[in-house]
Amino acid sequence: MTAAAPIETDVAIIGAGPIGLFAVFELGLLDLKCHLVDILDRPGGQCTELYPEKPIYDIPGLPIVTGQELTNRLLEQVKPFNPQFHFNEMATGLEKLADGRWKLSTDAGTTLIVPVVVIAGGAGSFVPKRPPIPGIEVFENAGDGVGVHYAVRKMENFRGKNILIAGGGDSALDWTINLAPLAKSLTLVHHRDGFRAAQHSVNQMRELEAAGKIKFHVASVKALHGEAGKLASVTLAGADKSEWHHETDAFLPFFGLTIKLGPIAEFGIHLNENLIPVDTAKFESQTLGIFAIGDINTYPGKLKLILSGFHEAALMSQAAFHIVRPNEKLRFQYTTSSSSLQKKLGVS
After folding, report:
1. Which of 18, 258, 266 is nearest to 124 (CA)?
2. Are 92 and 14 in contact (CB under 8 A)?
3. Is the residue at 2 inside a domain?
4. Which residue among 39, 92, 254, 346 sits deepest, i.e. has the most Cβ atoms within 10 Å of its Cβ?
5. pLDDT digits (tens, 9 = 90+) for 213-250
């Protein structure tokens, strides 16, 4: 297969979460074009991966917004700038070229040639914690609504299925509540009769159990059974060491996520405890032309908040302009009063 031709653009952004998306907006106001690389299959990062339907309360001007709603609003905001997304791709290589630009490579064969790289990858890539069950790999992602899944991409895929959920946190409780109306049967197991989830979610789960719409067992999953990747049943073990057979089509273990920095750690960028130190005037790393915004960076007084990342994206964009357009003068403008900015946004 012939390798795809390198793509030349202004800025490559690693991470398509809220901070990466807002960076597109700020860069777009300065006429800088962006390509975004994300290991996930859709935009939103942590917001859509961990809590797409949970409310966020600290976004300025939005008293309450879900992770998915925030992502949708940001996508609408950057639409005039036509960002290009490379989903299901991991940034695996970064090389400085003789002309001063960077060559960013992905595991899918994409090559981006850019003057500026912005790392907005949160704290790294999210990897689900796999339960220590022998042979579980055989049943992972076997198909829509069957086998072992560590995330629910589309609830409808689980309609009419016998579902087993394991875990005691927010994800386990939330998906128990959300999938119960769709499932043929749904059983929740946790190693103790206590949860780390929001109390109102625990209350809802108890109500569903009392109504006979779900089952709950203080138990753990000891073994998986089936053939050719098709899950048929599991062995459950109770707190009293008793074991029993439980038929199920889909097993959803929610034991949390492990965050791994991944190949970024091999890019030759100076790191401090797996974070990228930056200055607070430009949010540039110690390597010229490489910026870090959001949870991936560190500096004195750092707050890991989405609103902080938005601020960082704005200042980063001003500094990036001088690298991408070294011979042009940057004129600071307000969107409320600049007719040229309003024209770019399609609101004039």
Report:
1. 258
2. no
3. no
4. 254
5. 999 999 999 999 998 779 999 999 998 989 999 999 99
